[in-house]
Amino acid sequence: FENDVLTKAETNKTSKTWVGRLGVAYIKQLKKYAMFVQHGGKVLITVSDTPAGDFTWHQEISMLDMIGTTNTGDQTVFTDEDTGKSYLVYSYGKGRNKIYVSEIGVKDGMVNLLDCTQIFKGESREGNCMFKYNGKYYMFASNIYGWDGSLAYYLVSDNIRGPYSPTNNMLVMKGSEADYAHVTQTGFFVNVKGSEQETVIYCGDRWADFAGNGLGYNQWFPLSFDGKTPYFNSLNSWNLDEKTGKWNVAKDNDFVRNGSFEADRKRIPSVVKPVQTQLTGWATQIIEGNKISLDSANSPDLNYFNTEADRKIVVGEKSLYINDKVNFKRKVFQTIASSPYVKLADGIYTLTAKIKNNVGFNKLEMYALSGGKNFSYLVKDENANWQTISIKNVVVKSGKVEIGFSADGKANAFCRVDDVSLIKVQ
Fold it and tell me: What is the C-alpha to C-alpha distance for residues 384 and 256, in angstroms, rounded to an integer?
């Protein structure tokens, strides 16, 4: 902790309002640090002599003449270290279907935005942020899911003002699909330039206080690159050598994607935003019973909204739900394998989960399958309260393992599952 650099008294000088998406740029001409803040329906600029000093009201600006709305949708400050210039990257204030870049500078003796270039028009996007790597500019954004996690989208350009490709068609960053970028929204990036390599670190926002979608606020992940194509390494735990710039997977990394089932913001199956019939990162196979469909009257729910009491024991507001109104057989599973940049090493692992279930199951099993061998934990009794179950000595071979839950239940039998983890022990 350095300082409470911006106070409510300062932001509420004219009237009380909300603030968000703060970013700081150094203004060489004035020898000041300028903080750009979403400030109600406008943009507030505050200044300080030092980056950790007290920022004071400088001016509030309207974006109306530049983009047609007084406010920005979302915004982030990006500084190009090669040129020393800083920019505000932001979306259109209504609908957020356009993205702009404006250079930050001095106009009439005041910190302001000097210009405006539209670099994207298409699907609604927020969480706008940018980094530069190997001479190319990467503009990132998320879906408009409010406080919830999202796929990470991007465009690439040789010039900060574009053109960006693919034109008006943002790509999903590979590696972010199975857990919505580790249950985050695009926030900002940090480039660590070491003696041996440069590592771009993705910082995702996890709005846990608002969305109830897990633990923590900022979540940090190293990116990898195949040429100009970025790859998201969804790691629970990793190490960074800031001197060399190199990183590696930590020994206690949990390899399960969406193990607390927080990536999905709605009841699944979901009929809108997004239309979806499977849990993110997991596959549900119906062997007997009602089929999964968008018919909410007949389809089984695949996730459960945890109560306040549940959330004192398990992480987040959602859990896996295995249940049907008729007799059923079902398998819910996830295949974990090495990625191009993170190896699932052969060895001994422990598979752990928390469960809560009633009676009525002919068979209820947690399992891990690797190298043709099945490792199993049979749930034989009712668990009216959350219980932790584990399978130790899971032998992973050939860098691949299937984990999951198998159920043979009578009508109205239920099992809730949360906090699934797979960690290497040797």
Answer: 25
Superfamily of domain 270-424: Galactose-binding domain-like (2.60.120.260)
Query: In the chain, which segments carry CATH 2.60.120.260?
Result: 270-424
Domain 8-249 homologous superfamily, CATH: Glycosyl hydrolase domain; family 43 (2.115.10.20)
Q: 333 exposed, middle or buried (CB, 10 Å; 0-12, 13-18, 19+)?
A: middle
Give SS3 for 10. helix
How far apart, in whole angstroms, are the C-alpha atoms of residue 109 and residue 165? 36
Taking only the tens place, the pLDDT of each residue in 105-142 is 999 999 999 999 999 999 999 999 999 999 999 999 99
Rounded-to-integer distance, Cα 279 and Cα 292, Å: 11
State the DSSP code for 312.
G
Kindly report, residue by residue over 37-51, the tens digit of the pLDDT: 999 999 999 999 999
Angle formed at CA 146 by CA 52 and CA 207, multiple of 5 degrees: 45
Stated as kind and residue range, the H or E segment containing 180 is helix 180-183
